[in-house]
Design goal:
By secondary structure, the protein is an alpha+beta fold. The protein contains two helices and six strands; from the N terminus they run αββββββα. The protein has a two-stranded antiparallel ribbon with strand order 1-2. The chain is globular. The N terminus is likely disordered.
Amino acid sequence: MQNTKSLAAILVLMFGASTISSCQKKKVTEKDAIEYTYINEGSEKAPNGDFLLYNLEITTASDSVIYSTIDQPFPGYLMANDSLTPQNGMDEIFLNLKKR
């Protein structure tokens, strides 16, 4: 019984440490100075014509949710197209999405 409690405590500590160390960096767009964070950022650029699915949550500085796709029946999506030029900060965020 003691070994089980010790193992559980170690697992909780390891999970907590990994959660803290995996915090994502906040980024800021060049065009509009919008602060954003990719929670699960991919590493591979999607080929033109591929569709990228995403969940989006827009919050205030005090973390009040203004808009969210998380509770919607389907996530948002867009087609990858590297020939587009970002016109504003939201374009920068969406055009830099990468697949996982």
